[in-house]
Amino acid sequence: MRSKAVSNVFEWPVRVYYEDTDAGGLVYHSRYLHFLERARTEWLRALGFEQDALARQPGVLFVVRWMELDYRHAARFNERLLVRSRVEELRRASLVFAQDVQRADDATHLLSARVRLACLEATRHRPCPIPESVLRKIQNEL
């Protein structure tokens, strides 16, 4: 799979599998959360950070604090989608992503999302500052 960052927007391709659909052949609403999560994980990986490594050293986790979703059109089995992600807001211990999902073939806008991630200590699950090394990389992308 390929990914790219254009104008501070990270794009990640997704294919709709049969397991993603409901009895009517449409993508089940909660599956979009999986697509959004994959794109955020791949964005972090593209910056040079693996989530399991961050949990070990420096001992932090990024967890969803809240999200807002606006479903516009349905995706269907076997369609190619594109998840676009950009950091909309960066704070010392959290960040907000603006994400959208579109159909790759015709750019139909399927879903918009805003997602706040909080940085937590991996062992105590308490809020903590985003590590400086991660913060600098994110700031360079803005």
Furnish the topology, listing elements before pairings.
Blueprint: E1 4-6, E2 9-15, H1 31-46, H2 51-56, E3 60-71, E4 80-90, E5 94-103, E6 109-121, H3 132-141
Antiparallel strand pairs: 1-2, 2-4, 3-6, 4-5, 5-6
What does this protein structure show overall?
The protein is an alpha+beta fold and 142 residues long. The protein has one domain (4-141): Hotdog Thioesterase (Thiol Ester Dehydrase, Chain A). 23% of the residues lie in helices and 39% in strands. A 6-stranded antiparallel beta sheet has the order 1-2-4-5-6-3. The chain starts with a strand and ends with a helix.
Which key terms come to mind for this protein?
142 residues; alpha+beta; Thiol Ester Dehydrase, Chain A; six-stranded antiparallel β-sheet
Q: How would you sum up this structure in a few lines?
A:
The protein is built from three helices and six strands. With 142 residues, it is α+β, with helices and mostly antiparallel strands.
Structural class: alpha+beta
Biggest β-sheet strands, sense, barrel = 6 strands, antiparallel
Q: What average pLDDT do the residues reach?
A: 94
Succession of helices and strands: EEHHEEEEH
Taking all Cα atoms into account, the compactness measure Rg is 16 Å
Q: How much helix is in the residues?
A: 10-25%
CATH fold node name:
Thiol Ester Dehydrase, Chain A
Highest CATH level, the class = Alpha Beta
Number of helices, where a helix is a run of at least 4 consecutive DSSP H or I residues: 3
